[in-house]
Structure to design on (659 residues):
């Protein structure tokens, strides 16, 4: 029997292996171009990654070194205070100050205890915290001096006409003494502390006829208790999206004249920011992001494969196959059907290709901000991971409309990208603020890496946020 | 021994991005691999897609090939795996077997008179899974164990898919034999 199992298998095998078809030479050109393109992209990505790392690491290094500043030198100098080298007397403009007394006044021991050397060594205190700690030392000293002048620094806020002359006299005395003390402190403290003391003095002068206890109310004189700082963000993002350049060396691609239009669509998310120090925040969260594009082109290649009864639509970025039945079902009856399956073997038509991708975005960005009283300008840089949740693509050409879900040739469900942003924040209260920013983000890898034409999404957009700060 | 050294040298040059070497390797394998793609894919477009993707994968992953002697088998496996992935991704399960029975009448004379394209057409009318198993087992010579591993299925499933495919093809060919004999009878 001819159809015996072994004969059958060997006959079929023999038949199928009997003819050898030779591949078209254009296939090698395409493979070669793709390899060259990938090599270029690899180099470009490496440079981009390197520069991104530099952008992120420079601020981190700056933070570390700014916390180091002269803290160790300060400790060293304080310890030196007990040695014989420290001058016993310092001449100021008006007085000769006995340094041992001045040191006692300034309660250097308290100061030393406040600034725990191990904390300083481990860089856990920022510059500002060191200044604040110094201020906590100064406040009782100032208090004491004001008390000496029969003026209750803690409780009295307004000077009356009756007690003003006495108080002014006392204030002048206090200021003199403080100036002397500062002179001593110059040996002990870094520039930032000296500036703080000068500020205290100038505020005493400015406010002698008003609220003297403002120093206590002013945040900058209070030690910061929370090293970390959280914020909740709500961010509807309006972005423009487009496709990145595909294989530029591809001759076919060059010949395409896509007319691409980005579509504005809202994105939403909840983000959280962790305070690293006064100027830096680390942000992360979850965001729903869309990517939508529309392409008009003259180059939709439509072909009918009679061997498998398949109609193939091949555009620059999408390839869809339909059986003849499916094809007929998708033809828009309201328009003239220009496809005649019997006559059509292969042809090129104009088409509109719409792409709609949906992502969940998980950002990790570092914000550097400079704050005035109510405003904050911030610059952000970081990375994001995008998870593709949905992908639609549509091909519309001459009476034929296809609408396919998850038929895009997506090979990567995860994309990694990087972005930069510049924002302005307005503080309505200490806890609430609104922020708008300009952002640009780009994926490092393509969504369809196995496809000849790569879709690498990038976003340029305006972002609005409402922030709530937790202290 | 000579073959080993040729492969080694060629692979090393390819790893170092030598374009000439890449072309040489391509030319060495392009015809068998192209025909493999044509057999495994359902149409020419899909075959060319698999062909290009697979060759790119080959060049991108050559540096990971330890035993250079295994190059032909390794390349073939990449092509087969890419084809399986592509077929699974496209999921275009076409026309049921009965409906696709539209072979050209001039090629009829049972299995010996069938042309390669007719046989491929018959095989293509099988459901995706059994079609792939049949081609990998009968034509490409893989064992059920290898097929199961590549397609991520059980060995038993592979065997039953092959059985189904074989039966289905036999039925079709028998039908053709029958119609051929009727045709001859009518001519007489």
């Amino acid at each position: 029997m001819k159809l015996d199992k072994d004969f059958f298998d060997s006959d079929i095998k023999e038949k199928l292996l009997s003819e050898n078809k030779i591949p078209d030479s254009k296939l090698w050109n395409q493979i070669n171009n793709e390899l060259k393109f990938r090599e270029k992209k690899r180099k470009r990505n490496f440079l981009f990654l390197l520069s991104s790392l530099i952008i992120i690491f420079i601020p981190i290094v700056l933070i570390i070194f700014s916390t180091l500043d002269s803290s160790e030198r300060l400790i060293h100098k304080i310890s030196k205070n007990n040695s014989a080298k420290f001058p016993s007397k310092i001449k100021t403009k008006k007085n000769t100050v006995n340094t041992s007394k001045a040191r006692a006044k300034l309660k250097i021991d308290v100061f030393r205890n406040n600034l725990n050397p191990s904390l300083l060594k481990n860089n856990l205190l920022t510059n500002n915290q060191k200044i604040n700690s110094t201020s906590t030392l100064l406040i009782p000293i100032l208090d004491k001096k004001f008390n000496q002048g029969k003026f209750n620094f803690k409780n009295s806020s307004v000077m009356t006409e009756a007690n003003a002359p006495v108080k002014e006299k006392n204030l002048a005395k206090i200021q003199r003494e403080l100036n002397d003390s500062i002179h001593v402190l110059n040996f002990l403290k870094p520039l930032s502390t000296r500036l703080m003391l000068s500020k205290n003095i100038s505020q005493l002068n400015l406010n002698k006829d008003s609220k003297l206890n403002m120093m206590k109310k002013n945040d900058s004189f209070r030690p910061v208790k929370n090293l970390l700082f959280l914020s909740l963000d709500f961010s509807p993002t309006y972005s423009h999206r487009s496709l990145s350049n595909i294989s530029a060396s591809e001759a076919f691609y060059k010949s395409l004249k896509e007319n691409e239009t980005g579509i504005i669509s809202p994105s939403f998310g909840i983000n959280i920011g962790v305070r690293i120090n006064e100027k830096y925040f680390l942000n992360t969260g979850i965001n729903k992001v869309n990517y939508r594009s529309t392409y008009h082109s003259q180059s939709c290649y439509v072909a009918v494969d009679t061997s498998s009864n398949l109609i193939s639509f091949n555009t620059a970025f999408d390839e869809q196959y339909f059986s003849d039945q499916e094809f007929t079902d998708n033809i828009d009856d309201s328009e003239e059907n220009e496809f005649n399956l019997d006559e059509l073997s292969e042809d090129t038509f104009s088409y509109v290709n719409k792409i709609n991708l949906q992502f969940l975005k998980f950002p990790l960005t570092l914000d550097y901000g400079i704050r005035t009283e109510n405003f904050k300008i911030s610059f952000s840089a970081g990375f994001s991971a995008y998870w593709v949740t949905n992908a639609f693509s549509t091909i519309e050409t001459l009476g034929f409309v296809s609408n396919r879900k998850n038929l895009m040739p997506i090979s990567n469900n995860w994309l990694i990208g990087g972005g930069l942003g510049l924002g302005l924040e307005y503080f309505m209260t200490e806890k609430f603020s609104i922020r708008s920013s300009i952002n640009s983000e780009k994926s490092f890898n393509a969504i369809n890496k196995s496809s000849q034409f790569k879709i690498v999404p990038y976003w340029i957009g305006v972002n609005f946020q409402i922030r709530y700060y937790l202290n | 021994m000579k073959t080993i050294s040729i492969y080694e040298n060629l692979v090393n040059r390819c790893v170092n991005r030598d374009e000439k070497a890449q072309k040489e390797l391509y030319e060495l394998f392009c015809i068998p691999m192209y025909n493999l793609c044509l057999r495994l894919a359902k149409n020419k477009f899909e075959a060319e897609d698999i062909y290009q993707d697979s060759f790119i994968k080959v060049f991108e992953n050559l540096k990971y090939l330890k035993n250079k002697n295994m190059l032909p088998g390794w390349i073939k496996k990449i092509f087969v795996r890419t084809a399986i992935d592509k077929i699974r991704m496209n999921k275009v399960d076409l026309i049921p077997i009965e409906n696709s029975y539209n072979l050209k009448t001039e090629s009829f004379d049972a299995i010996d008179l069938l042309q390669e394209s007719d046989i491929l057409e018959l095989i293509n009318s099988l459901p995706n899974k059994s079609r792939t198993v049949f081609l990998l087992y009968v034509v490409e010579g893989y064992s059920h164990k290898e097929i199961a591993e590549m397609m991520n299925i059980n060995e038993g499933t592979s065997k039953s898919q092959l059985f189904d495919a074989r039966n289905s093809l036999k039925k079709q060919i028998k039908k053709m034999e029958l119609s051929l004999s009727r045709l001859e009878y009518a001519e007489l």
